[in-house]
Amino acid sequence: VGIHPLRIEATDEAGNSATILKTINVRYKFEDFDSPFKKDSEFNSNRTIPIKWGLLDVDDNLVHHIKGKIIILNNKAEAVLADDFKEEGNSGIYKYNLKTSDIGIGSFTIQIKPDDGSIFTKIINIIK
Description:
By secondary structure, the protein is mainly β. It is built from no helices and eleven strands. It has strands at about 1-10, 15-25, 30, 40-45, 50-55, 70-75, 80-85, 85, 95-100, 105-115, 120-125. The strands form three sheets. Strands 4-11-10-6-7 form a five-stranded mixed β-sheet, with no helix packed on it. It has a four-stranded antiparallel β-sheet with strand order 3-5-9-8, with no helix packed on it. It has a two-stranded antiparallel sheet with strand order 1-2.
């Protein structure tokens, strides 16, 4: 994970050779949200919503000990909440308990921002 140099060298049968230098950015894959957050996008106010997800490596294995933030943006793209997310034990599943009373009523964008620079989002509505 992260930015890495990549050098590709090739030589054909006639002896001609070429080298290309590239920079690649390797990032985690996002394993979708777990229920209830996976299937629902509308939630009542004054409740706690467990937001759970996994991050995968290139071989689709859950990755452990990732650091990152969860950010909640209102409909004006202003951050109304920002906090660290945490792994559940050593499961490779990350969790944040969103207290809807902390953000109010309306439409919000949830951003999951792991330490590799990725941003994974979901839009939700909090109703009375």
